[in-house]
C-alpha cells in the first residue's frame, strides 16, 4: 500500500460522519419545530415551502440534498441562511431521484476577546434586522421552495477555500423579498469546491465596515488561499455622511489599499469590484454617471497594485442599456421605484456578470464557475431567469441609496 493511499484512508477515517436527515413527507423532522441546539422546522412555512434549521458551530459545510419523490414531480429551489441561492429550479420526474451538493458558510457575531488593555470588541455590531435574519446565529438554515421534493439532507464540514465579500447593500444577503443583491446569488453560480461568505452590509462604507468590526470578523477567519472581493462606493461618496465620507482622489484609494494589504498579509487573494451604477437614464437611453469617479479610482488602484478587477460598473451600465428604460425597472426592487437596489432578477444578472468576469480574469477560481457564458449586452429575460421568491417579505427599503 502506497503512502498517499495510506494518508488518504487515514484522513477518511478521521473525518466525522455527515449528519443525515430524512425530509420526506411525513418524516419526524417535518413535524417538529426548531429548538435551540437541535434541529427542526422554522416558523412561517407552508405545506410545500418551508425552512429547516440545524444547530452547528461556525464554519463551511457541504450540504448534499437528495431530491425526488416516488410518485410526484418536483421543481426544487434551495436557499440558505438569509436567502442565499444555492440551487435553482431542479426538476425531477415521478420516481426520479438526484443528488446535488453545495457549500454553506455559517457564522456568529462573536470575536475573540482582545487582550487586556488592547482596543477592540468581542462581537460584530448588529442591527435589529441583522438579529432577525438567519445569518448571525448558531445554526444552518435551509429554505426549500417551488415544488420541493426533498427525500433527505446530509451535512458535513467542508475544507474548501472561502470567497469573502465585503461591501454594501448592492452586495449583501438581503433579508426579505423583493430586494436582492448579487452576493446572495453568487453561490448558485459556483460549484461545491468553494464557499461564499457574504459579510456585506446594507448602508456600509469602508469606514463603517471597520468600526462595526465586520472587517475584524472577516479577517479573523481568513486563511491563505481564500479570496476577498471588495466593493464599496455607493455610500462612501456621500458628503452628507461626514463620519464616513471618502473622496475618490485620496481617501478612497487609501482605504482600498488597507483592505488589499490585510488580505495579502494573510495569504489571501484580493479582488476589486467596481460598484454597479444606479438606474438613471438620460434622454438618449444612456445611463447617467453617478459613480464614475469611484470606479475610475478603483481601476487605477487595480493597475498600480496589480489587483484583479471585476468591472461591475461597466457591466451594469451595459445591462441596463441593453434592457432599456422600459424594461430595466423590472430588474429593480420595489416595483422599479428603487433605482439602486435590485430584485431577484436584477441580482441574478449582476451575479452572472461577476461570474463571467471570474471566468475570464481569475484562472485559479474560474474552474469553480458553473454558470453559462454571460454577455451583459444580451441579458436573458425575467421569465428565463425565474427565481422562486422566498417566504419572508418586507416593504422596508435596504439602507443606503
TrEMBL record:
InterPro entries: Galactose-bd-like_sf, RhgT-like, SGNH_hydro, SGNH_hydro_sf. Residues 167-326 form the SGNH hydrolase-type esterase domain. It comes from the Bacteria. Keywords: Hydrolase. Transmembrane segments: none annotated. PANTHER family: PUTATIVE (AFU_ORTHOLOGUE AFUA_2G17250)-RELATED, RHAMNOGALACTURONAN ACETYLESTERASE. Belongs to the 'GDSL' lipolytic enzyme family. This is Rhamnogalacturonan acetylesterase. It comes from Sphingobium naphthae.
Amino acid at each position: 500500500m502506497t503512502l498517499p493511499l495510506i494518508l488518504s484512508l487515514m484522513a477518511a477515517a478521521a473525518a466525522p460522519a455527515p449528519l443525515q436527515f430524512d425530509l420526506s413527507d411525513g418524516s419526524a423532522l417535518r413535524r417538529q419545530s426548531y429548538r435551540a441546539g437541535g434541529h427542526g422546522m422554522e416558523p412561517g412555512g407552508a405545506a410545500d415551502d418551508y425552512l429547516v434549521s440545524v444547530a452547528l458551530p461556525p464554519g463551511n459545510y457541504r450540504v448534499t440534498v437528495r431530491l425526488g419523490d416516488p410518485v410526484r414531480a418536483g421543481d426544487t429551489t434551495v436557499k440558505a441562511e438569509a436567502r442565499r441561492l444555492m440551487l435553482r429550479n431542479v426538476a425531477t420526474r415521478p420516481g426520479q431521484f438526484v443528488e446535488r451538493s453545495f457549500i454553506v458558510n455559517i457564522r456568529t457575531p462573536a470575536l475573540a476577546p482582545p487582550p487586556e488593555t488592547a482596543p477592540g470588541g468581542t462581537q460584530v455590531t448588529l442591527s435589529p434586522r441583522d438579529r432577525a435574519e438567519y445569518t448571525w446565529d448558531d445554526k444552518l438554515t435551509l429554505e426549500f421552495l417551488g415544488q420541493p421534493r426533498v427525500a433527505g439532507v446530509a451535512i458535513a464540514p467542508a475544507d474548501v477555500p472561502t470567497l469573502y465579500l465585503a461591501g454594501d447593500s448592492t452586495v449583501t444577503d438581503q433579508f426579505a423579498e423583493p430586494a436582492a443583491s448579487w452576493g446572495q446569488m453568487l453561490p448558485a453560480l459556483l460549484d461545491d469546491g468553494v464557499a461564499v461568505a457574504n459579510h456585506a452590509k446594507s448602508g456600509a462604507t469602508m469606514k463603517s465596515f471597520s468600526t462595526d468590526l465586520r472587517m475584524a470578523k472577516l479577517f479573523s477567519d481568513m486563511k491563505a488561499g481564500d479570496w476577498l472581493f471588495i466593493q464599496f462606493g455607493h455610500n462612501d461618496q456621500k458628503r452628507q455622511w461626514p463620519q464616513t465620507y471618502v473622496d475618490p482622489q485620496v481617501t478612497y484609494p487609501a482605504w482600498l489599499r488597507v483592505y488589499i494589504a490585510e488580505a495579502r498579509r494573510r495569504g489571501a487573494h484580493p479582488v476589486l469590484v467596481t460598484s454597479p451604477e444606479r438606474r438613471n437614464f438620460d434622454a438618449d437611453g444612456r445611463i447617467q454617471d453617478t459613480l464614475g469617479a469611484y470606479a475610475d479610482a478603483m481601476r487605477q488602484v487595480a493597475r498600480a497594485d496589480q489587483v484583479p478587477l471585476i468591472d461591475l460598473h461597466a457591466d451594469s451600465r451595459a445591462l441596463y442599456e441593453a434592457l432599456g428604460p422600459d424594461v430595466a425597472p423590472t430588474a429593480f426592487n420595489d416595483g422599479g421605484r428603487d433605482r439602486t437596489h435590485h430584485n431577484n432578477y436584477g441580482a441574478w444578472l449582476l451575479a452572472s456578470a461577476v461570474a463571467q468576469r471570474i471566468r475570464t480574469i481569475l484562472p485559479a477560481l474560474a474552474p469553480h464557475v458553473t454558470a453559462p457564458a454571460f454577455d451583459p449586452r444580451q441579458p436573458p429575460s425575467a421569465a428565463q431567469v425565474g427565481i422562486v421568491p422566498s417566504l419572508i417579505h418586507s416593504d422596508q427599503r435596504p439602507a443606503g441609496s
